[in-house]
Amino acid sequence: MRETKYWTWHMAAGVVILFLLGLHMLIMHLGGITQLFAPYSGEAISTENSLFRDGHLFFTVTYILLLGVALYHGLYGLRTILLELTLKPVVEEAITFVLLVVGIGLMGLGTWAAIATHAIARVGARG
Fold it and tell me: Rounded to two decimals, what is the model's pTM?
């Protein structure tokens, strides 16, 4: 039953990734056409447009959310693949622990980077 719950979260994370990556593609790669969140002339990836987006809390939150669901989805999928090797229970617990520590570490680093980028953009990249 417990694994079913984690698998359901794994599938839900895939749906959230699909939505957030679709939004990312629309804004970043079709931004020149749609002009969504790109008030300055030029490409969506220009420095001015990037600072404009990074200065909004919405983008910081969605970057962190995308990072979290992508890490969960990817690391849980990797764990599932590794546990199909029918290893000893001690090795399975070690794999779970290592992936959990790696996930928490990467989540912390990515969250710090998103918040730092937001803070830099808020002051106008004057650092």
Answer: 0.82
Q: Give pLDDT, residue 42.
A: 65
- Does residue 17 contact residue 69 with C-beta atoms inside 8 Å? yes
Where residue 127 falls among pLDDT bands split at 50, 70, 90?
A: very low
Quick one: which of 49, 72, 74, 71 has its CA closest to 59? Answer: 49
Higher pLDDT among residues 48 and 100, named by residue: 100
The answer to whether the CB of 49 falls within 8 A of the CB of 37 is: yes
Interatomic CA distance for residues 113 and 119, integer angstroms: 10
Tell the residue number behind the tokens 């546990």, with chain if given.
83
All structural domains of the chain, each given as residue ranges with its CATH number in brackets, are: 2-122 (1.20.1300.10)
Spacing of C-alpha 105 from chain mean position: 13
Supply the Cα-derived Rg of the chain in whole angstroms: 18
